[in-house]
């Protein structure tokens, strides 16, 4: 986390930052208010409502399992956003202990989570309003925020940095009797057609990929919601089972309570069925994305190969032009030599 600033300063800055968001469901009075993930979801929903949805329930009381379920859904969506939208491997970033946050409101772990949320808000396309509000913070707060952003920026640079590919060169000999201009024009035409066709394929592939990513995100959100609903039902079922056990011990079993338990079990089964259906669809979407990604890599290789062929064609054309000029010079000197021979024969004939 941020080693240049004390923990208390970091707490103040993040609470101050969350309160700058105009759409949060309630003000943040302390860092512990962020332990259930509700306010952080509100902050992210303002940036990208397609990926992030506000929590359905703001009041989780002391139920740490509900907090943990909501935090798990939050981090799961954030990890996909980091990898699919920002292009940052989420496993390269500091791990956040969600259990410590949900159970004990661990300040250190909450600060880690806040840093991840903050970076999404400033790195997303809709960051103008966020940056404007950050610039209105006190100078020291802005320093903490900038240090936060720079830490993840360094991870992003390390993850997305690629060495510059050096173009390969090759020499190719030209045949004297080849019609060079015709060959070059035909090869150039074919090359341009290939490049145009690859560009169209690339655009279509990118459009399909973006659409699939959006569908995948929506399906994943639905899956996470079902997981959250399942956790709630399981928690309610556990509480009802405890109540029935206590009633049995005291000899006051309530038939209404048993009926409620049966209803809860039915709801839980329905939720599990829907979750399994969503999981199957999610796997299908994942396979489709992997297949599309592979096609994209193949298309990229073909584009690079076409570019290399174009470079080789340019080199061949240049060599052919040089050779043509040399032939013209040779023809010129050959004609001069023949003229000189004719002149010598005429001189000898006149002397005789």
From TrEMBL:
Keywords: Actin-binding, Coiled coil, Cytoplasm, Cytoskeleton, Microtubule, Repeat. It comes from the Eukaryota. The keyword Repeat applies. Residues 159-188, 296-322 are annotated as: Disordered. PROSITE patterns: ACTININ_1, CH. Pfam families: HOOK (PF05622), HOOK_N (PF19047). It is found in: Cytoplasm, Cytoskeleton. SUPFAM superfamilies: Hook domain. GO terms for cellular component: cytoplasm; microtubule; microtubule organizing center. Residues 163-188 have a biased composition (Polar residues). This is Calponin-homology (CH) domain-containing protein. It comes from Absidia glauca (Pin mould). The gene is ABSGL_05638.1 scaffold 7188.
């Amino acid at each position: 986390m941020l080693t240049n600033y004390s923990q208390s300063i970091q707490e103040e800055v993040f609470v101050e930052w969350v309160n700058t968001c105009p759409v949060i469901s309630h003000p943040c009075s302390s860092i512990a208010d962020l332990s259930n993930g509700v306010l952080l979801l509100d902050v992210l929903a303002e940036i990208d409502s397609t990926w992030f949805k506000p929590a359905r329930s703001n009041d989780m009381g002391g139920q740490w399992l509900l907090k943990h379920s909501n935090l798990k859904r939050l981090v799961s969506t954030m990890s996909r956003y980091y990898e699919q939208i920002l292009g940052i491997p989420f496993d390269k970033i500091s791990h956040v202990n969600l259990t410590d946050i949900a159970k004990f409101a661990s300040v250190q772990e909450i600060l880690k989570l806040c840093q991840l949320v903050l970076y999404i808000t400033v790195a997303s396309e809709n960051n103008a309003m966020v940056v404007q509000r950050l610039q209105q913070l006190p100078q020291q707060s802005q320093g903490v925020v900038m240090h936060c952003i720079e830490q993840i920026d360094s991870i992003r640079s390390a993850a997305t940095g690629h060495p510059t590919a050096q173009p390969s060169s090759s020499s190719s000999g030209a045949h004297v009797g080849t019609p060079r201009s015709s060959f070059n024009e035909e090869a150039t035409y074919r090359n341009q057609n290939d490049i145009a066709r690859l560009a169209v394929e690339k655009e279509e592939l990118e459009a399909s990929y973006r659409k699939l990513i959006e569908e995948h995100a929506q399906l994943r959100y639905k899956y996470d919601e079902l997981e959250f609903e399942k956790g709630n039902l399981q928690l309610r079922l556990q509480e009802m089972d405890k109540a029935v056990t206590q009633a049995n011990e005291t000899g006051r079993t309530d038939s209404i309570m048993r009926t409620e338990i049966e209803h809860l079990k039915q709801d839980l089964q329905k939720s599990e069925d829907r979750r399994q259906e969503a999981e199957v669809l999610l796997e299908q979407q994942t396979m489709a994305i992997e297949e599309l990604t592979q096609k994209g890599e193949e298309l990229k290789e073909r584009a690079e190969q076409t570019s290399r062929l174009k470079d080789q064609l340019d080199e061949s054309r240049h060599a052919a032009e040089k050779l043509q000029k040399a032939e013209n010079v040779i023809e010129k000197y050959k004609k001069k030599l023949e003229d000189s021979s004719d002149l010598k024969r005429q001189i000898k004939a006149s002397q005789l």
